[in-house]
Amino acid sequence: MSELNKGEAGVHAIIDTDRYPLERLESSRSIALLEDCRQKLATDGMFNLDGFLRPGVAEQAASEIAPLFPDHAFTHARRHNIYFQKGASELPADHPALVEYETVNHTICADQIPGSIVMKIYEWPPLAAFLARVMGKSALHPMADPLARANVMSYGAGEALNWHFDRSEFTTTLLLQAPRAGGVFEYRTDLRTPDDPNFEGVAALLEDRDPLKRSLTPKAGALNVFKGKNTPHRVTPIEGERDRIIGVFSYFERDGVMFTDEERIGFYGRAG
Question: Which CATH architecture has domain 3-268?
Answer without folding.
Answer: Sandwich (2.60)
